[in-house]
Structures are given as structure tokens and as C-alpha cells.
Amino acid sequence: MYSEKVMDHFQNPRNVGEIENASGTGTVGNAKCGDIMRIYLDIDENQVIRDVKFKTFGCGAAVATSSMATELVKGKTVQEAMAVTNKAVMEALDGLPPVKVHCSLLAEEAIHAALWDYAQKNHIEIEGLQKPKADIGEEEEEEEY
Ligand code: FES
User: Phi and psi of 106, rounded to 5°?
Assistant: First the structure.
């Protein structure tokens, strides 16, 4: 049910860890499953993402998507990193089962939250970047009650 690429990134996740004094950090939770993701970005003076690390209390699909997402944003400018959507990450992984699509949102939202943190600290604006939500999927959660 999982592609080979998903299994590879799940079993050998890239960029797991922390960055001390990161340029930006972002933490998001997934209200649907309660899982949490944190992303650390190290960004140089030319707004290029020099390094990126992640930590998660998430499922295998969240690990695989974060691993792939961090690989995709590494070396990119902050503006280019905005194009790394959960859709792009899923394509790079050769797809995810539909029930696991929400897991891939964690990585995208955590990267956006880290970019937001970086932008706030440096008083810059990143086109298309919106203030992050603390919990993704909370709208759906409310409907269930
Ligand atoms: Fe929570 Fe996948 S089930 S992130």
C-alpha cells in the first residue's frame, strides 16, 4: 500500500534532529490524530535554506513526508521553499494512500510556520506566506462534534 520511496524515507528518514539557534522553527499539531511536527531552518544572509531538521511524534507517513519535504527545501531560497506543497511532496514520494494525506500536511504547515518565524524575526515578508495555524485540521474536527 506504500510506495518504495515512502518506505525508504520512513525507514531511513533524512534530516532528523534539531538545529541550535535556528533561523526559524515551526511546530504544528494535527488535530485529527494528535500528532506533532517541529521543523528547524538554518537560513543564510541570502535567504537560502542552508540546513533543515525535523522532529516528529507522528506516524510513518508523517515521517516519510517530512523527510522528503526537508530534502526538497534544502538549498532552496525561502521563496522557492513556498512551492514545496504537500502535493509536491506526495508526488515526489510516488503518492500516499488517501487516508494518509492529512499526515503530509504536517510537514508543509511546519515548514510554513518555521518560515513565518524566520520572517518575523528578520522583519521580512515572504510572498504567499500566511500566519500559521497552531493546529491543522481543526475545522474538520469541530464538525465532528
Ligand atoms: Fe497523525 Fe499520520 S496519523 S500524522
Answer: -55, -45
